[in-house]
Amino acid sequence: MRLTELTKGDRGEIVKIHADKPLKDRLNSFGVMRGEEITVKGCSIAKQTMEIEVGATLIAVRADEAEKIEIKKL
Fold it and tell me: In DSSP terms, which residues pair with 62 in a beta bridge?
């Protein structure tokens, strides 16, 4: 399952990030890494961006970035 399949209020655990090294490094710097629990806080119209919470950090990710994050729904 991909992050883009979740809706506002859903929670999941990151299983894998299918991205190139620069994007993985950027996401890791925000705490988005394998094993972390995330909560979807909101989505823009047509899900072009998603606001997610990882720990105490709120992050906005683009749809193409969210599509690369494989999760397990909790």
Answer: 49
Domain boundaries, given as residue ranges, for the chain: 3-73
pLDDT (tens digit, 9 = 90+) per residue, 50-72? 999 998 999 999 999 999 999 99
At residue 29's C-alpha, the angle toward residues 68 and 60, to 5°, is 55
CB 38 within 8 A of CB 66: no
- Quick: pLDDT tens for 8-61: 999 999 999 999 999 999 999 999 999 999 999 999 888 789 999 998 999 999
Phi, psi of 36 (to 5 degrees): -80, 145
Q: Which CATH architecture has domain 3-73?
A: Roll (2.30)
| Residue 68 CA: distances (Å) to CA of 5, 14, 40, 56 | 11, 11, 15, 22
